[in-house]
Design brief:
Strand content: 15-25%
Order of helices and strands: HHHHEEEEEEEEEEEEEEEH
Number of helices: 5
CATH architecture of the largest domain: 3 Solenoid
CATH superfamily of the largest domain: Hexapeptide repeat proteins
Largest sheet: 6 strands, mixed
Radius of gyration: 24 Å
CATH topology of the largest domain: UDP N-Acetylglucosamine Acyltransferase, domain 1
Distance between the termini: 95 Å
Structural class: alpha/beta
Strand order of the largest sheet: 3-6-9-12-14-15
Number of strands: 15
CATH class of the largest domain: Mainly Beta
């Protein structure tokens, strides 16, 4: 348990430049509190202790605004930045070194039974307000853009944006994505369409001009 706490401190210092001290993290970081509460609740859940794990989860939700079902499996060095509104479902599986921003939902798509929540690989970053739904796998080192809704599996080292989420970029292992510079596939498609229309209009004008010249020459 002490190692997990130490790793949480180190992870927050690495991921959040606003973190100034251990005391500040201990007192002021709801993501830190929610993860520690989940570690304890999850252990009780695996021991099949009735009710108490859910009670711990609900108390943590009340104080942090972060809801993590005690059945969710979470790897090492997991960090929730800001955290308000984060929801993580019961059968969610999260790898190591995963970063979630506020408003993220790792949920189901209906009343399924069994494995019904997503699996996130190692090194995944999920942007603000993104939703990942259903029993799908998000590959290692994937970046999910803010506000995206992902309902299909995503391969390793890729970037997903949009509703529904689409893979718009494949990256090398060391590739870095800045959330403020996410690709806009819809905007790019509209820009390409506008350019194509302009080209067709230019071709039509050229054809009309040539026909006018031919008519004038034939008179």
């Amino acid at each position: 348990m002490f190692r997990a706490v130490r790793e949480q401190f180190d992870t927050i210092f690495r991921e959040d430049p606003a973190a100034k001290s251990v005391i500040e993290i201990f007192l002021c970081y709801p993501g830190f509190h929610a993860v520690l509460a989940h570690r304890f609740a999850h252990r009780l859940y695996r021991w099949r202790v009735p009710l108490i794990p859910r009670v711990i989860s609900q108390i943590s939700r009340f104080f942090t605004g972060i809801e993590i079902h005690p059945g969710a499996t979470i790897g090492r060095r997991f960090f929730i930045d800001h955290g308000m509104g984060v929801v993580i479902g019961e059968t969610t599986e999260i790898g190591d070194d995963v970063l979630l921003y506020q408003g993220v939902t790792l949920g189901g798509t209906g009343n399924e039974t069994g494995k019904r929540h997503p699996t996130l690989g190692n090194g995944v970053v999920v942007g603000t307000g993104a939703k990942i739904l259903g029993n799908i796998r998000i590959g290692d080192h994937v970046r999910v853009g803010a506000g995206s809704v992902v309902v299909h599996p995503v391969p390793d080292y890729s970037t997903v944006v949009g509703i529904p989420g689409r893979v718009v970029r494949m990256r090398d292992q060391d590739g870095v994505l800045e959330h403020g510079r996410l690709p806009d596939p819809t905007g790019q498609a509209l820009e390409d369409l506008s350019q194509r229309i302009a080209e067709l209009e230019a071709m039509m004008r050229k054809m009309v001009d040539e026909q006018d010249r031919e008519r004038r020459q034939s008179r």
